[in-house]
Amino acid sequence: MIKIGCHLSSSKGFLHMGKEAASIGANTFQFFTRNPRGSKAKAIDPEDVKAYLEFAKGQGIGEIVAHAPYTLNPCSAKEKTREFALQTMRDDLERMEYLPGNYYNFHPGSHVGQGIEKGISLIAQTLNEILTPGQRTTVLLETMAGKGSEVGSRFEELERILELVECPELVGVCLDTCHVYDAGYDIAGDLEGVLNTFDRVIGLEKLKAVHVNDTKNPMGSHKDRHEKIGEGFLGLEALRRTVHHPKLCGLPFCLETPNELAGYEAEIRLLRQKA
Ligand code: FE
Ligand code: FE
Ligand code: ZN
User: Fold this and answer.
1) Measuring CA to CA, which residue among 210, 198, 175 is closest to residue 63?
2) Among all ligands shown, which has an atom nearest to the Cα of 32?
3) 66 alpha carbon to ligand 1 midpoint, in Å?
4) 130-156 pLDDT, tens digit each
5) CA torsion angle for 171, 242, 247, 198 (degrees, to 10)?
6) Which ligand is nearest to the CA of 215?
């Protein structure tokens, strides 16, 4: 069964998210580890986590994806901003150990004029400081649209970061369909070609999760504006092909479209159908 779900609010805890996911036909989901703007995280409630894990097992909910606050910038030019990203990510990873075997996705960051090389090296440095051998969470670099000075809109950039990480088994990539298309990869017209490129540059074995979004903008626009499934430039068929592609079989697919729960439920149903 295809593992598909959507981004959910974590404000009411894990069991609540699990129940919401199950109620809309989802068997995975994504959530922010804290307020997306990066404030203090709520303490983990071990009882809630325990109840969630039991519920998830019964419902067949597979791996889930935690998303770091998108305001973090691990490759900022300001030491203070980098340090804040590092401390936040380290704290998130400690909390994720309550839910072993899942993913922690983050935006690599923006090099803000320091150049792509400097950005890559700062991101890898951050990863090398926060990854702990034996940790049970895989950290994912998200493919970016290439807005402003974002690092990670080219597969080559992500590959270079991965290459500099000292614990390669603890890192992977999350592919965002809106972002890669905005970055100039034609997943609507040539999904096979893009996956082959990913495989050649990074290796498909490093691909651990997918964000399924349509986009408000044409290929190569570097804008990063998500659209509802079927209402953007990618279209339902291209996204369906992605979700059902045999090379992506078993990966968690998470919707991050502008929707409420009912809209997500309908999109999950649409994408589960083969045609
Ligand atoms: Fe993201
Ligand atoms: Fe995304
Ligand atoms: Zn986005």
Assistant:
1) 210
2) 1
3) 10
4) 999 999 999 999 999 999 999 999 999
5) -50
6) 3
Look at residue 91 and give its three-state secondary structure: helix
The token duo for 104 is 């922690």
Side chain identity, residue 106: F
Those residues whose C-beta lies under 8 Å from the C-beta of residue 207, and which sit 6 or more positions away, are: 172, 173, 174, 175, 198, 248, 251
Note if the pTM is more than 0.90: yes
Give the number of whichever ligand sits closest to the CA of residue 70: 1
CA of 51 to the centre of ligand 3 (A): 31
Query: Which of 24, 94, 16, 19 shows the shortest CA–CA distance to 257?
Result: 24
179 C-alpha to center of ligand 2: Å?
7
Instruction: Output the CA 67–ligand 1 centroid distance in Å.
Output: 7
Residues 208 and 173: beta-carbon distance below 8 Å: yes
Among the bound ligands, the one closest to the CA of 145: 3
Identify the burial level of 6 via C-beta atoms within 10 angstroms of its C-beta, where 0-12 means exposed, 13-18 middle and 19 or more buried. buried
Q: Give residue-wise pLDDT tens across range 72-109.
A: 999 999 999 999 999 999 999 999 999 999 999 999 99
